[in-house]
Amino acid sequence: MGTREHPDMTQQHRVTRLNPYAFPPETNVRFALLLAAAVALALNLTLLTFGQIGLLDVTLASPDGLLLVDEATGQVEIDRVRLGELQTSVFAGWLIIGLSCAYGLALFGAAWLIHRRHPRRIARRKGLDPWPEGRDPDFISALADLCRRAGVDPPPDILVATGSGLTDGQVFGFRRRYSLRLGSRMPLLMRKRPEKFRAVILHELGHIVNGDVARTYFTQALWITVLIVAVLPVTAFIVYNVTDATLLRLNALASGGDLQLERLFFVNIPIWLLIGGQFTLIVLIVGLIRAGLLREREMYADWRAALWGARTTIAGILQAHASHDEERHGPFSLHPDPAARLETLR
Fold this sequence. Notes:
It is a single chain. The protein contains nine helices and eight strands. It has 346 residues and is of the alpha+beta class. It folds into two domains: 23-116 and 214-345, no CATH class; 122-211, 2-Layer Sandwich (Zincin-like), CATH 3.30.2010. Helix 1 packs parallel to helix 7.
C-alpha cells in the first residue's frame, strides 16, 4: 500500500497515510485475493466430488508401451489394455478440468446474477423513491455542484428514503448508471449544516471516483454465493457419510458383525474433519478478505473527500462517532473503527 504525508504535518510529527493514487490500490489487491480464494473453493469442490465418485483413484497412464512390435514379423500392434488405461486417464483428466470450470462458472455466474440485481434489491429494502422532478431546485443544484467538483459525470440518480429521518447516503449501481440513496433529512442538513452535507456527499462520490462501487457489491454477491456453494454441498457430503457410516454399524451391531471401529476412528472421522476444516478455512479466508475490502474502501473515500476540502468536517464527524462508538471492531467487522479512520486523516 502506498503512503503519503499530509501537508499539514510538521517535521516533528511526520506520519504516513493512505495514498489514494497508489498503484495498485489496496482495494484492488484485496479484490484479487477474493477472486483467487473463490477459485480455490471451486477446485476443492471438484476434488471433493471426484473423491466421492472414485475418479481420484484413476492412475495417470502414459503412452509408453502402447505399441507392441512382433520381433519375428515386425508387425506393430496396439496394446488394448494400455490403450484402455490411457483413455480412462485422459477422460479423468479432462473431466477434472471440465468440472473445475463448471464449478467456477457456477460460482461466478451466480454472483454476477446477484450483483446485477442489487440496485433493485436495495431500492426495495430501503423503500427508495426517485427524487421528484422540480422539487427543491436549490438542493439539486448543490448536488450538481459537488458532482462537478468531484468530476462525476454523469451524476448519479438521486433516490430518497422517504420517512427515514436520516442524514446519510449510499452509492450503488453500475458504471455510468450509479444511484445515490439519501436520507429524507438531507435537504434540511444542507441548509442547517452545509459543511456536513458537503462532507457526506463528497464521501459517497469518492466511492465512485475510486471505482470501488462495483467491486463492493460484487464482493457481497460473491460472499453470498460462497456460503451457498460451499456450505450446502459440504454439509450434505458430511451428513450423508455420517448417516451412511452410522447405519452400516447399526446393521453390523444387529447382526453381530464387525463394527469396524478402527476404520471409523482412524479413517472416516479424520477425513470428515479434514474436509470440513478445509472448507471452513476457505470460507473464513473469503470472509476476512471481504471484511477488509469493505473497511478499506471507507478509508479511501474519506481521503478523497479530504482532498476535495472536507477533511476538517469529516474529522469532526468521525470524532463524534468515535466518542459514542461501543461496537467491537474485529477482523470480520464490515465498517472500520471511527478512531482508526480519524487517525488516518490526521
